[in-house]
Amino acid sequence: MADTIADTRRLFSKPQNLNDAYGPPSNFLEIDVSNPETVGVGRGRFTTYEIRLKTNLPIFKLKESRVRRRYSDFEWLRAELERESKVVVPPLPGKALIRQLPFRGDDGIFDDSFIEERRHGLEQFLNKVAGHPLAQNERCLHMFLQDESVDKSYTPSKIRQA
Prior knowledge:
Blueprint: H1 18-22, E1 29-39, E2 46-55, E3 64-70, H2 71-84, H3 112-130, H4 139-146
Antiparallel strand pairs: 1-2, 2-3
C-alpha cells in the first residue's frame, strides 16, 4: 500500500488593502420598504408604501429607484412570479380580514402598529424575492421595483442582461 502525504500548504492569497476591506461590495442589492401613507376615505381608503432600490447589479436598468406600491400590487407581483417563474415564492403578510370588520375599537388595517408590521413583512418578502437569481430575470419584478406604474396587462418575459 502506497503512503500518501496530504498537501497542507496554504493557498496563496492576495493581501487585502483598504479599498478591498472598506470599498463598495462587488455586488449589492438593497431594497427598503418605508414611509407608509394612507390615502382616500371610506371604502376607497388604502395604504401605499415607498420602495427604494439601490443596486450595482447589471441586470437592473436603474441603479437607484423609488416607487410607491399598495398591498394589492404586492399580491399581483406574487401571483405573476408564481405563474411565470421557477422560483418558490415566499408568502406575503396576511390580509388581516378580522381587522377589516366594522365596529372595532381600533383603526383596523389603518392602525399604526398593523401598518408597521405589514411594512416589515413586505420588505422581507421583496428582499427574499429580489435576491433570488432566477427572479431577477423576470420582467414583472423589474416593472414592480423600477417603473412608476405597474402595467398589469404587460407581456411576461425574461430580462436579458446587458
